[in-house]
Structure formats: structure tokens, C-alpha cells
UniProtKB/TrEMBL annotation:
Belongs to the glycosyl hydrolase 2 family. Residues 313-607 form the Glycoside hydrolase family 2 catalytic domain. PANTHER family: BETA-GLUCURONIDASE. Residues 37-213 form the Glycosyl hydrolases family 2 sugar binding domain. Residues 1-23 form the signal peptide. Keywords: Glycosidase, Hydrolase, Signal. This is Beta-glucuronidase. Residues 217-308 form the Glycoside hydrolase family 2 immunoglobulin-like beta-sandwich domain. InterPro entries: Beta-gal/glucu_dom_sf, Galactose-bd-like_sf, GH, Glyco_hydro_2, Glyco_hydro_2_AS, Glyco_hydro_2_cat, Glyco_hydro_2_N, Ig-like_fold. Its EC number is 3.2.1.31. It comes from Lutibacter maritimus.
Length: 611
């Protein structure tokens, strides 16, 4: 029915490859302190399980055709007269709230995995004609194909990291329409893969913003303490625009009386090196944030940045050269207020308040990058953070695209959060089975991370095993342990591995001379279910697992902290036991409706007693 010539196809694919690269390389940081207009709120949506709005009846993508037919949803077409045949209409379709997942907003979409089209219309008057405008998505799960006023801007893969596209040349003062095809189908070769233990929420799950910038502007900067010299603040600033070579950028930190000028190179980048002997170091007890102001021409950008070092020293972890024990808890990004995917400041505040109440100085954000509110609040609250890439369980280790995807998602979270003092550990993966291709995959990720960010530690939640075949002695036998800075692993003695009393029979022989963090331990309990401590799912069983595990872990000489599994019960389609799980993983110390279980207090007492 439709013919398209090869040259057109070629140009379209070159163009979309370019735009994909663009999305990650031109990420605009610090959208909190820029001129933005929110596109949150009601969007029209169309559920499209057959992807009828994307492919024609020969299963050829409409977007590869010179004149996309009226069936292509991204054209947002309307009948021109009464004879016109158009079989969809965004404006007559129902609305859905952005940000938020579709699963908990629309009952009939609870388990839906597939394509949903989103459309938002808006007017926009630029404050200055020469200004540029970008559309910025904090996260869309999992694949987003983005179109603006009928033109493709690009696509983004990965459900938990931000991306932006420029729309300056396509923008009108009125009747703009932004269309996003959101597809959350799980795939074997994706990151994460088919199999996880969390809910695959679909949708535009975080904020959408229009960012207005000058023609040439400050796109990115990295301003952190030099781990090798605590009197030096180091990094770079990167400009964006056509006139960015050899330009002056002023950096001011008023409280340190620093006012400095750097000059950009041909690519608009300049190295930063600032000195002060009077830095008030950021720490868990003193989460001091400095106002940092960057100025380039008319463009002025502020941030609040903490300065601290994080290093390992033999078997210890040092924050500002002092040993610190990480009193942690693992957290999934679910809203403790509404249920469903968490996205708001209030969600983040509630989760981190609970962590504080538990006595934590550290949280593990599992198993994927959480929203930016979390790390910004952690900065203010003095909570250390482990951030994780969603390389989970059985990834397609041999697939080059899978690697690229994992690396890209990791780069995006590092880009977003590299100025947050709270973030101390980048985690490459969780519970991945050892094999040669997996070791290469993870080692390459670690190399990439170190090149992007030499100021933080690298880890991964590994698995433990029997020492020389003896199940009463446990060890870490994994060559990736040689690559990480901090040796972390999950262990479930007392839950998946025997009964709680088994903790008393196990000793640990960890041979690596590195700090050890237990990234997970725990047990399931239904809040309000009571019984003796050998009855599964009771609060008493879970409480006993905590008591026994804490005793057992004292036997690990290198132990520098832990993040038990998990702060709050969370949704997982793997958890089907009626009356107990009902779709929830019950290992939370707090139920999904905010009730604390007995084990909460065991851990709290332990943390309160530990300085
Ligand atoms: C694990 C996983 C975590 C699961 C947990 C469990 O080891 O890392 O994602 O939810 O166990 O509850 O089984």
C-alpha cells in the first residue's frame, strides 16, 4: 500500500541514531534551578496493545514513511471534513495523570504490559526570541518514542533515568502537541530482563518539564571534592550552544569566599580546580551544603553542593578520613502514600523519614535509579546513598546491545547525580550468576563508571557460597569481588536457607581484604500476624531472623554495615500467596499502609546503640 524509497529510510535511520545519542550526551543537569514549565497533569491517552498507531497493516512503522497516514498516532490527526476517515482521537480519549504509573491509576491496566500513547497539548511563549527550549523527562518506563508537533524527536530506553530533546525549531506559540509512545513490555535482552521481583509499572512515571535556556548555556557540571586532596574542589563545566569555545564561566561559592573564572576549550568544556582550607565538610551529622553559583553570560545556575570524601582504607570505609559504619536499609521506589510507583517529594520524604526513625545513616536504593528527589533530600538529611543499575539476575551477558543499554542507563544516573554528596556507591548489579561473559560485562561497567566518576566507590550485590564445600562456612567466591571497592552480598540464612537458628551455626571466611557490606538479609512477615517464632509469616519469625542475623554478622571481621531487605512491603507479581502476600513481597519492616512490624524495633535498637 505505501512505498518508501531506500534513501529516505537511510536518512531516517541515520537521523534517529543521531537523536538517540543526543538524548544521553546532551543531558541537562540540575533542572531544579532552571527556568522550567511543568508539563505534569492530565494527558490524553490511548491504550494500543497491537501498536496500531505505530505500524501500518503491513507492520511497517508509520514513522519511516514520508507522509505518515492518518493512522499514525503521533500526527495527532483530526478529520479535515466530514468525509475524512481517522480512527482515533486523543482529545476524545480519557485522561491520565502524569507523573504516575498507569497500573495503579486505571483498574483495567493493572497488569497491562504494552504500548500506551500519551498526548499533551500546550501553548508556550518564550521569554526571549533567541532562547532555546527542551523537553525533559525524568523517567518513562520502559521505552519512550517521543514526537513533537508530528515530528520524531527520538527514543529513549530504560525506565529510571532522565533524557531530554530540543524542541526550539518546532515550537509554536499555541497548539503544540507532545506525543509519547510508552512501551513497558518486558524483554529477555532488556535491562532489567524478563524476570525480576518487583512490579513493572508502566507510564510516564516521573515529572515532565520544558526547560528554557539561552542560546548558549551551562548544560552540565561536575563539582566535587578531590578524593586525593580535601582542600581542592575539582571537576568541569560544559556549555551547550554554537558559540561556546573560549568562553569565560564564573564559579562562586560565597560561603568559602571563592570567586573564580575558567575558560572553555573548543568544545565548550572547562576544567575546574578550586582551593580552600576552610571547607565545612558534608557528613551524616553535618549535612552542610554550599551554595554554588555558575555564571556564563546571562545564564546563571545555582546548586547546593556538599563536599566530602569517601574512600576505603583496607577493610574500612572512610567518610572525610574517618571510619564510618553504614547503618542502612534497602528501599524500593514505591509511594508510601498512594501505593504504586513513587515520584513525589512527599513520597521521598516519607521513606527517608522512616529510614531516619530506624536510626539509619545510609540507604540502598534498590534495584534501579530512584527519582532525583530522593538524592536531593538525602543530601539535606545527611543520609548516605547506594545507587544501583537495574542489571538484575539473568541479564543477556553476551548481547552487545544489552551491554550498551546497561552502560547507558548507568551513565545517565551518574550524570544526573554526580554532584550529590549523599551518593557514595555506584552499584553495578544485583545477584548475578558468575560466568565469564558476566564478569566481562560487569568489569566493563565498572571501568566505565570509574572513568566517568573517580570520586565514588563501586560495588555490586553479589552472592555468597559454601567455603570449600562446607555449608557451615560461607565465603564469597566471585572474581568480580576483585574489581569492586566494597564487597557486598545478599544472604538469607534463616529464610530461604534454613530456619533462624541456623544463623548460630554459620561462620564466615571472607578472604578479600576489603570492607564488607551485607546488601540484603531479611524475612517475610504479614503485619499483625502473630505466633511463635517458628511460624512463617508471623512478625515473631521475622523478628527472630533479625535477632539471629545481627548476632551472626558480628562474626564478620570486615563488616562495615548493612542494608536489610527491606524498609516497606512492596508489590511483586511473583508473590501470590493468598491472605499473606496478596501480590506483595512481605519482607518490609513496615507494611504498605505504614504499620511497623516487630523487627523494625530490633534493627532500630541495634542502630541506636551503635554510634
Ligand atoms: C533478593 C533480591 C530481591 C528480592 C529478595 C527476596 O535477593 O535481591 O530483589 O526481592 O531477594 O525477597 O527474595
Amino acid at each position: 500500500m505505501f512505498k518508501i524509497n531506500r534513501i529516505t529510510l537511510f536518512f531516517i535511520s541515520v537521523f534517529s541514531a543521531f537523536f538517540q545519542l543526543n538524548a544521553q550526551e546532551n543531558l541537562i543537569v540540575n533542572t531544579y534551578n532552571r527556568t522550567v514549565k511543568s508539563l505534569n497533569g492530565d494527558w490524553n491517552y490511548i491504550v494500543d496493545p497491537y501498536e496500531n498507531g505505530f505500524y501500518n497493516y503491513r507492520y511497517e512503522p508509520f514513522e519511516n514513511q514520508e507522509n505518515p497516514a492518518n493512522g499514525a498516532f503521533f500526527t495527532n490527526a483530526k478529520p479535515k471534513d466530514k468525509t475524512d476517515l481517522i480512527e482515533y482521537d486523543f482529545d476524545l480519549s480519557d485522561v491520565i495523570e502524569v507523573p504516575s504509573d498507569w497500573n495503579t491509576q486505571k483498574e483495567n491496566l493493572y497488569y497491562y504490559e504494552g504500548t500506551v500513547w500519551y498526548k499533551k497539548s500546550f501553548d508556550f511563549v518564550k521569554t526571549n526570541q533567541t532562547n532555546r527550549v527542551f523537553v525533559y523527562f525524568e523517567a518513562v518506563n520502559y521505552q519512550a518514542d517521543v514526537y513533537f508537533n508530528g515530528k520524531k524527536l527520538g527514543k529513549h530506553i530504560g525506565g529510571f533515568t532522565p533524557f531530554n530533546f530540543e524542541i526550539t525549531d518546532l515550537l509554536k506559540e499555541s497548539d503544540n502537541f507532545l506525543v509519547v509512545k510508552v512501551d513497558n513490555k518486558r524483554k529477555k535482552e532488556a535491562v532489567p530482563t524478563l524476570n525480576t521481583d518487583w512490579f513493572n509499572y508502566g507510564g510516564i512515571t516521573r515529572d515532565v518539564k520544558l526547560i528554557e535556556t539561552s542560546a548558549n548555556f551551562i548544560q552540565d557540571y561536575f563539582i566535587q571534592l578531590n578524593p586525593e586532596n580535601k582542600q581542592q574542589i575539582k571537576g568541569f563545566v560544559q556549555l551547550n550552544g554554537t558559540n561556546i569555545a573560549n568562553k569565560e564561566v564564573f564559579i562562586t561559592i560565597p560561603a568559602l569566599k571563592i570567586k573564580t573564572k575558567v575558560v572553555t576549550d573548543a568544545k565548550g568544556k572547562a576544567a575546574i580546580a578550586l582551593y580552600s582550607k576552610k571547607i565545612n565538610y558534608w557528613s551524616t551529622k553535618n549535612p552542610y551544603l554550599y551554595d554554588v553559583i555558575l555564571k556564563f553570560g546571562d545564564d546563571e545556575l545555582k546548586d547546593q553542593i556538599g563536599f566530602r570524601t569517601i574512600k576505603t582504607n583496607g577493610q574500612e570505609i572512610h567518610l572525610n578520613d574517618s571510619k564510618i559504619f553504614l547503618k542502612g536499609i534497602s528501599i524500593h521506589e514505591e509511594s508510601p502514600i498512594r501505593g504504586g510507583r513513587g515520584y513525589s517529594v512527599e513520597d521521598a520524604q516519607q521513606l527517608l523519614n522512616w529510614a531516619k526513625e530506624l536510626g539509619c545513616n545510609y540507604v540502598r536504593l534498590a534495584h534501579y535509579p530512584h527519582n532525583e528527589h530522593m538524592v536531593r533530600l538525602a543530601d539535606k538529611m545527611g543520609i548516605l546513598v547506594w545507587e544501583e543499575n537495574p542489571v538484575y539476575w539473568t541479564i543477556a551477558w553476551d548481547n552487545k546491545e544489552t551491554y550498551k543499554n546497561a552502560e547507558n542507563q548507568l551513565s545517565e544516573v551518574i550524570n544526573r547525580d554526580k554532584n550529590r554528596a549523599s551518593v557514595i556507591i555506584w552499584s553495578m548489579a544485583n545477584e548475578t550468576p558468575t560466568s565469564e561473559p558476566r564478569n566481562i560485562f560487569l568489569t566493563n561497567l565498572a571501568k566505565h563508571t570509574r572513568a566517568l566518576d573517580p570520586t565514588r566507590l563501586i560495588s555490586a550485590a553479589l552472592e555468597q557460597s559454601n567455603y570449600q564445600g562446607d555449608s557451615s562456612v560461607r565465603t564469597i567466591h566471585d572474581s568480580f569481588a576483585d574489581v569492586v571497592d566494597v564487597l557486598s552480598f545478599n544472604q538469607y540464612v534463616g529464610w530461604y536457607d534454613g530456619l533462624p537458628e541456623k544463623c548460630g551455626q554459620i561462620t564466615w571466611k571472607i578472604t578479600q581484604n576489603k570492607p564488607v557490606l551485607i546488601s540484603e538479609f531479611g524475612a517475610g512477615a504479614k503485619v499483625g500476624l502473630h505466633g511463635d517464632k517458628l511460624t512463617r509469616w508471623t512478625e515473631e519469625y521475622q523478628e527472630d531472623v533479625y535477632i539471629q542475623t545481627l548476632k551472626m554478622l558480628e562474626g564478620i571481621e570486615q563488616l562495615q554495615g548493612f542494608s536489610p531487605w527491606i524498609l516497606v512491603d512492596f508489590k511483586s507479581p511473583r508473590r501470590v500467596l493468598p491472605k499473606i502476600q496478596d501480590g506483595y513481597n512481605r519482607k518490609g519492616l513496615i507494611s504498605e499502609d505504614g504499620q511497623k512490624k516487630k523487627a523494625f524495633y530490633v534493627l532500630k535498637n541495634f542502630y541506636d546503640a551503635k554510634n
